[in-house]
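Expect sequence, tokenised fold; for instance:
***
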Amino acid sequence: MKGLELSRIFYERCGKPMLERQFAQYVDRIACGLAGEGSETFGYDDYVSRDHDFGCGFCLWLSDEDDKEIGDDLREAYLALPHSFLGYSLRDPCSYGVQRLSAMRISDYYIKFTGHPRGPHTLLEWIRIPENFLAAATSGEVFADPSGEFSAIRGRLLSFYPDDVRLCLIAWRAFMMGQAGQYNFFRSLSRGDNVAASLALARFCEAACSITYLLARRYMPYYKWAHRGLKDISMLSDIYDLLSALLCDETPARRKVTLLEDICSLVIAEFKRQKLSESGDSFMVSHCPCIREQIEDERIRNYVFIGE
């Protein structure tokens, strides 16, 4: 059984009755579900995932006011839920000292992933949040949200980046694909510097994953799930297999250069389909000015990602 399904059943059979019995006065203001970090929130959990931090559990999201009134009592009631259910144990609400389950404030949840109690509002706030944080914030499923407060913020995040931010990120990823992949990977190989070539290839692959998500208007998850998540994107579907072949140890270096260029060609074709660039150049960096020209906000148009 997948973790998200187990969480939903555990909530319906144990969590919901507990809320209705012990917190009847507040039950119509408590949001419940499973979201945040963890492979199970994306549906990527498998038999390997079960070697740690797997079992029954869910989140309870409260307003700041309700948390002051019942937060401690609700967290205590959560820990009193059955510690064994359908053969699975109740998960520890905290992992490495960070709360991931049980009752928490809505504002704390969104501060954790976006830095803001109700999510980002300005373009600069949006662009400074790592993609995987937004993916985690909007992952999983909301089982119940009578007041709609939690889901209203979630819905705004799910609407994806503002256009200017999305365009800026696409341009930067295109630059990285060209600079690290088309340029530095081949040059490093020519020098016999295999470490530099491997680092350049890794940067290219991460940028290729990211740009695929951005073009599909989805947030890229944590790096170890970035490639796996491409299976769920119908757009640019060939990139999943091309990246698999590109990173295969048995693939010859010359073949890797060809695969890398094939990936760039697919992305450039999607640029044209989405009217992001009309350039006929095969070098990814050449498309960046065309994409940046469409950004209306000057600060975002000239934004530089320090350290990338």
